Amino acid sequence: MVAGRRSSVRWEPSLPPLLPCDPGQKKPLSAIIKEVCDGWSLANHEYYALQQADNSNLYITEKNRSEIKNGTILRLTISPAQNAQQLHERIQSSSMDAKLEALKNLANLSRDITFAQEFINLDGISLLTQMVESGTDRYQKLQKIMKPCFGDMLSCTLTAFVELMDHGIVSWDTFSVAFIKKIASFVNKSAIDTLILQRSLAILESMVLNSHDLYQKVAQEITIGQLIPHLQGTDQEIQTYTIAVINALFLKAPDERRQVGVESTVDILDCPLTEMANILAQKQLRSIILTHVIRAQRAINNEMAHQLYVLQVLTFNLLEDRMMTKMDPQDQAQRDIIFELRRIAFDAESEPNTSSGSMEKRKSMYTRDYKKLGFINHVNPAMDFTQTPPGMLALDNMLYFAKHHQDAYIRVVLENSSREDKHECPFGRSSIELTKMLCEILKVGELPSETCNDFHPLFFTHDRSFEEFFCICTQLLNKTWKEMRATSEDFNKVMQVVKEQVMRALTTKPSSLDQFKSKLQNLSYTEILKIRQSERMNQEDFKSRPILELKEKIQPEILELIKQQRLNRLVEGTCFRKLNSRRRQDKFWYCRLSPNHKVLHYGDLEESPQGEVPHDSLQDKLPVADIKAVVTGKDCPHMKEKGALKQNKEVLELAFSILYDSNCQLNFIAPDKHEYCIWTDGLNALLGKDMLSDLTRNDLDTLLSMEIKLRLLDLENIQIPDAPPPIPKEPSNYDFVYDCN
């Protein structure tokens, strides 16, 4: 806080009149606390501290004192060290009531890093883990008569543990197998308190994500089969935590283990990668998620959408190994797959004799058939699969299509083999390129984004969704090829059209593969041409000089319109996440601009809000006049910290910070690219700087085009000259002028 701002302090026990205080002045905080204590005749000022009087209970330190806002009410309370010592003793009390009250206070105070550090210094984490390990046994006899008290004690203990570990002070590698087994036992119980289950799942997720050794131990205690009952309930929070644990196990599993889910995750170690989908299918995980989560009669919240997106990405990443595997032309088993494609398509009744003459005949027949199948290398089609990506994944897709959609496969192959050479759609070549394109669209092999919620329900409707997706798209490609009357020279053009068709259909979020197929039926080549023409007209760049001059004239008022829209959106405000390495425990905070555009109001929220948050409920303020700069991406202070989250490219693209005062900043990670553009544009507009986002450029182009077309409506079908018409010569006399006087 800058000098000159003032706050007030009250002493908790008796709540006397407020005392004015200026924690922003340069004197040490300890000196300020001493002055306050002297004012109330309190001895031993070193046993006291200042704390925010709101629900945050944040202790004021030399590090965070600059963040105190004008008018903030502080309270004088016992110091973090004293408080930690007292609670450390009280949670070991023999009185159940005193113990429970202390645990509740501990769970509340543990969110503050200053208190957390003091409690951890007393070996508080070890104490909590011992209570979890032994507490259930010690009080097992009391459960029947004190079950509510026992449940509250355990949930408060686990909550305090989660909050303390969230600060990243203690390594996750320090925990015993007994503690892991105890936490896992809470998850494996059929009937357990909801809050205890939530905290237990959160702890297991953090263990897996933050420690390789703990991953191994957790994987031995928790199986997919034991987690599935939690997905079949109606509590979306529990379902979200459960999928988060599954994702964590999936994400951290070594490649050779990333298949699993059967009875012991130890089995994962020995499973080949391709068995993952089979094991998940055995446990019916996909169908359970589809029935009880995606198609449940309730809206899917953002956190659940994110976890479903992560599961979708991790599932597709199982294809990466095949995508990056080249075919070995000498491998007979791999060559047999190509022979099978030929056999299904042309149904050879008998094999020629192996005599030298017949061998030549066989080679000739194979070469002819491989040409009909559309391979580039007719003699040795195995060479077509040596490029990665898509590698062997393309051949896998082709075989799946041939075996599971045999009639469609034979029709596609025979249709093209009966066309003229120049008009045939090469099935082999197109399948390879199509597989590569689908991998790019679905980002196979890329790590999931920390902020994305973009899952597609259709990929949860089939155990072999990628292969089915390919089968639909390969038939689309053949249909589009015919509609375009394409030749081999048009191959890349056809692939571009197919990519546009697929991406436009996916944008509508079809709920099933059949619905996706129906969307594609409405996106024929003719329809794509119409869409392109419409977009081209809307984005038409008028080159004539009069139009360019008109653009230049009206551009400032369009920019002003965009600026007002951005500021209006800032006045409405946005809910942001406080992301950290444990996304499951992230908190929300809200920021909005005051209607007079002079102050930014912001504050923490317990949950994602429905609609706007009123200004008066946001406890913190930042005057716009105090803002020094707005920085983005890698220049943001919170992006310079170490950690896996900070290395994520998509998070970097959504990060921005407001710099104010001397060393203060307000850090943001936008929920999506649109909000990022809105806020960076709006903040730049407040500072009198240019709005440079992609969204502003697109809006400017669209609005300019619309405005120009509206102004030129009366000139429709009239040719606009490049240069103004010549000015006529002056008349020989002005006798025709009428004198009004």
UniProtKB/TrEMBL annotation:
Domain ELMO: 333-506
A Pfam short name: PH_12
Superkingdom assignment: Eukaryota
GO terms, molecular function: SH3 domain binding
InterPro entries: ARM-like, ARM-type_fold, ELMO_ARM, ELMO_dom, ELMO_domain-containing, PH-like_dom_sf, PH_domain
CDD domains attached to this UniProt entry: PH_ELMO1_CED-12 (cd13359)
A GO term from the CC aspect: guanyl-nucleotide exchange factor complex
Record keywords, A-Z: Apoptosis, Cytoplasm, Membrane, Phagocytosis, Phosphoprotein, SH3-binding
Compartment(s): Cytoplasm; Membrane
GO biological process, one term: actin filament organization
PANTHER family the UniProt entry points to: ENGULFMENT AND CELL MOTILITY, ENGULFMENT AND CELL MOTILITY PROTEIN 1
Role of this protein: Involved in cytoskeletal rearrangements required for phagocytosis of apoptotic cells and cell motility. Acts in association with DOCK1 and CRK. Was initially proposed to be required in complex with DOCK1 to activate Rac Rho small GTPases. May enhance the guanine nucleotide exchange factor (GEF) activity of DOCK1.
Protein name as it appears in the record: Engulfment and cell motility protein 1 isoform X2
Organism: Hipposideros armiger (Great Himalayan leaf-nosed bat)
Gene designation per UniProt: ELMO1
